Amino acid sequence: MIRRPPRSTLSSSSAASDVYKRQVQAHPSLKTITMVGISFGGLICRAAACLMHSETDGTIAGLEPLAICCLASPMVGVRATLPAPYRWITNLVNSCPTTQELLLQDAAQGCTRGAGNNQEDPVLVQLTTPPFLRALASFQRRLLAMSTHGDVVCPYSTAGLVPWAPSQEPEGDAPTGISGKHMDLCDHGIPGFDLMDSDGDG
Fold this sequence. Notes:
By secondary structure, the chain is an alpha/beta fold. 31% of the residues lie in helices and 16% in strands. The relative contact order is 0.15.
């Protein structure tokens, strides 16, 4: 295993998109693509999808996009969800690019997609702009999976994009439950991109 220093979402997604493209070139029989990211990898997948997205034909790295799945990924950061002891620890390592991004204390330097957007916005804000949403829209399925209880680092609210209190856990679910969402049901103004705002059955 190669150990690398922590990198930002954008630099990591650029490296990931290069790997995807090399695999596509090495395997010309590939027709479709599914992307899966775990934890911070979900943010990398979202950004990499934008870097590989063709605005002309809607493909990702030249392939038909089937699904993108983010497992326990901090979609809206962790600044409002971390318990006090964890916030204290993150202040000690705040020089790490990923920590700055998840605390919304960064600026999206080097973001080349989305001309006209405010390049000083945090990376997580940049990921909500039209170029990134159009890339997500190209996938037939967009899925989130998250723990309903007990995940203090990436709790239900940030991993599941829930619209209520960031530290609250859902009532009535088992403490060890896992929840999933299909982000396919309500219009957010981007053609083809529909976002369910409540739990779905699939």
